Amino acid sequence: MSKLFRKEQLRELTLAYAKEITREKGVLFWGIVFPILMSLGLGIAFTKKADVVRKIAVIADGESHGESNDGSDAGSRGANPEGSSRIETFLQSRTKRIEPNGNEPARYEITIPSEKLGNTTFIFEKTTWQQATVHLKRGNVAVAIDEHDGRIEYHLDPRNPDAQLSYLKLSRLFGDGGAATAAGEWTARGSSGEPVSESSGELVSGASGEAASDSDGEPVGDASDENIVPLTVSGTRYIDFLIPGLMAMGIMMSNLWGMSYGLVEKRTKKLLRRMVATPMKKSHFLVALMTVRLGMNFVEAGLLFLFAFFAFGTTIQGSLPALFLVFIAGNVAFAGIAILSSARTANTEVANGLVNLVSLPMMVLSGVFFSYHNFPEWSIPFIQKLPLTLLADGIRSIFIEGAGYAEISVAVLILMAVGVVSFIAGLRAFRWY
Amino acid sequence: MTPATAPERTTSMDTNLVIEVKDVHKSFKTVQAVRGVDLRIRRGEFVALLGPNGAGKTTLVEMIEGIQKPDRGEITIMGKKWKGNQDELHRVIGLSLQETRFVDKLSVSETLRLFASFYQLGEDRVAEIIRIVGLEEKKKSYVVNLSSGQRQRLALGLALLNRPKILLLDEPTTGLDPNARREIWAILLGLKKESETSLILTTHYMEEAEQLCDTIVIIDKGRILREGTLRELLGDDGSTGDRDEGGAGGRGTGAAKAAESPVAPRRKTLDDLFTELTGRHLDE
Predict the structure, then answer these.
(1) Within-domain flag for B12
(2) What is the per-residue pLDDT across B139-151, written as a single tens digit (0 to 9) for each?
(3) B200 touches chain A (CB under 8 A)
């Protein structure tokens, strides 16, 4: 038998490791069921036209609660609870009052129907300024409104996209009614919840010109609904973006957690030390681990794809052999990284830290869930070289852009190089006992 | 270092010599674990390294296993040094480490089959080992479901798979109940009867050393204090002239015999000898 290759050893090591991980029910759940559940949850969240409920705090205490941009007397703030204000008029005439339950305040509800974007329901709740601040801090409401000399003020965090959207939709609601001075104020909120003052009349002015109600004052669908053409072409939906990202993440997590943690545990149990006191080829042991992981990841990715195919109609538009190639390269890269990161330690807590150190930055940066182009421009070239980015982008380009060998060749080469170099370095540094 | 009182049983020219340890030293940071040890072990000889915890037994065995390198001195196995001969020496050595845990979700026969593949051994040998260590009824059980005695028998079975010329057992019965301990002893006595395997066994149980081994090496603080057969170590009559009033609370075989006849003179034990040499007991 060749001294370099011992077929019997490799076969038995591979079989033993395959049995070890497939007999753990937790492995099957976290490796196969969990990614499917995650894709199901995210897929539904981002593909269904769900009705959106937006809660708005209406400040009705007339207290002084912050500086205005024009320095006017804060004492003149606040809606007139007797009903003479625009907000009160709006609530009484356009919304449905929900009777209070116990000590809860009265609520007012209005729904803006939209066939294409999904319905939006606003729920207004009258509060004091202090209560509104608490609700803003807790995230219970995204926007608080009050009125000052006939001008509606919107209190929100301008860096919160949800608050921005609420503001835009809300300002369109209040933009009707023929108030010539319908320009409002947008008061940006700091993290403390206190107004930090920022006028944004342009935003409100722009919104106020488009009525969200018909001539009878009844709410109608979004005025621009008829101009909206929902994307239904395969590959342009969020789920099409998400599934390749989940596959790439699955490969990384399976290798890093499965191999790194498993190796450290075997070292802690002195099993590695016992095994190398035999004529076992050390490289065969590691190759067996990598082979089993590759097989497991293939099954996991295949099941995830089948689920996405039947549940969301996800398809592979590019070359299947190229997909297989980038899949192998990704596995090699992360298996190599896993062996390198677990080469020395015999402490599972240190192993946890090392795996998190490697995986968490890539989870955040590499565009698994959302495009990494949201990060600063200077960081993009760096992010694009991360192994998880290369893998996710490679799989994604084949899935949704119809890419083939040419488009993924550089990524495959880099991933393979990362894997081989890490594997060799890991094997050299490896502590068997 | 061989004490002057220890008999010189072999020479380096002895063709039956399987392990030779010459003036070996090993330190870890500030601890001198092994300090100038000499040891020669012949074919078929069973040797016990007897000493309390921290005596340096495990370090010495790890150097013989090739896991640790001596700071000074030389170790040869079957006339060969570890460097450059690892594959060959791994084939003639069987070992059982302290507290090794195997893969929980592999069965007894799967674990043995895995290790058998490292030596290119087949199913026949796996079945034979299962019979030798008495795990026929447990061969399909996962390791996680075995008792500690059964796990230790599995560890011994793995050590015996390759029909080793040298068997190294590091505290093979520590933590086992008396029955499980006797089962291990029975397997080893059977091995002694049927093969020419040499055994180095570390233990702090003097009964184990007395029952199983031809030669007992008493070791403490990294040094060999005494070395020889039980008779050589304790003298021909082995009597201290003391009486063991309590009997049942005594240590070891000698004490056990004294317990059977509380009025008889208590035999000198290895623990007595260790106390004479160090002022401490073996289990301290």
Answers:
(1) no
(2) 999 999 999 899 9
(3) no
Measured CA to CA, the distance from residue A74 to residue A67 in angstroms comes to: 7
With a cut of 80, say whether residue A1 has pLDDT above it: no
- Alpha-helical segments (H) within A78-226: 86-94, 129-138, 161-174, 201-208
Instruction: Give B237-272 pLDDT, tens digit per residue.
Output: 544 434 343 333 333 444 444 444 455 566 778 888
Could you tell me which residues come within 8 angstroms of residue A370 by beta carbon, excluding any fewer than 6 positions away? Answer: none
A277 neighbourhood in chain B, CB within 8 Å: 65-67, 90, 93, 95, 97
Q: What tokens were used for B32?
A: 């001198």
Asked if residue B217 and residue B113 are part of one domain, the reply reads: yes
Tell me the angle at which helices A405-429 and A282-312 cross, rounded to the nearest 10 degrees: 140
How far does CA A28 lie from the centroid of its chain? 24
Quick check: B1 contacting A, CB < 8 Å?
no
Q: Domain containing B208 — which CATH number?
A: 3.40.50.300
Q: Is residue B11 part of a domain?
A: no
Determine, yes or no, domain membership for B9: no
Q: Distance between CA atoms of A396 and A249, rounded to whole angstroms?
A: 12
Half-sphere exposure of A366 (CA within 13 A, CB side): 27
Domain contains B7: no
User: Could you tell me the strand order of the sheet in which B46-50 lies?
Assistant: B93-96, B166-170, B198-203, B46-50, B215-220, B223-228
Q: Same domain, yes or no, for B194 and B260?
A: no
pLDDT-derived band at A210 (thresholds 50, 70, 90) equals very low
Q: What is the pLDDT of residue A385?
A: 94
Contact A13 B119 (CB under 8 A): no
The ipTM (two decimal places) reads 0.82
pLDDT of A331 higher than 80? yes
Residue A263, phi then psi, degrees to nearest 5 = -65, -45
- Report the residue of A2, A21, A23, A278 to disrupt the B interface, i.e. the one with the largest count of B CBs within 10 Å: A278
Residue-wise pLDDT tens digits, B86-143 = 999 999 999 998 877 899 999 999 999 999 999 999 999 999 999 999 999 999 999 9
Q: How far apart are CA A164 and CA A158, in angstroms?
A: 6
The pLDDT of residue A313: 86
Distance from CA of A415 to the nearest CA of B (A): 32
Q: Which residues pair with B41 in a beta bridge?
A: B19
Burial A127-159 (b: 16+ CB within 10 A, else e): bbbebbbebbeeeebbbbbbbbeebbbbbbbbe
Cβ-Cβ contacts under 8 Å, B115 against chain A: 275, 278
Residues B179 and B266 in one domain: no
Alpha-carbon separation of residue A200 from A136, A183, A197 (angstroms): 20, 9, 10
For residues B108 and B182, membership in a common domain is answered with yes
How many domains, in total, are found in chain B?
2
Which band of pLDDT confidence, cut at 50, 70 and 90, is reported for residue A234?
low
Range of the domain at B278: 239-284
At which of B219, B234, B249 does a domain end? B234
Q: Are residues B146 and B275 in the same domain?
A: no
Pair (B225, B246) in one structural domain: no
Does residue B223 sit in the same domain as residue B263?
A: no
Asked if A271 lies within 8 A of B115 by C-beta distance, the reply is: no
Whether residues B104 and B194 share a domain: the answer is yes
Residue B95 sits at the chain A interface (C-beta within 8 Å): yes
CA distance linking residue B248 with residue B258, whole number of Å: 8
> Which residue in B65, B66, B106 is closest to A20 by CB distance?
B106
DSSP code string of B144-197: GGS-HHHHHHHHHHHHHTT--SEEEEESTTTT--HHHHHHHHHHHHHHHHH---
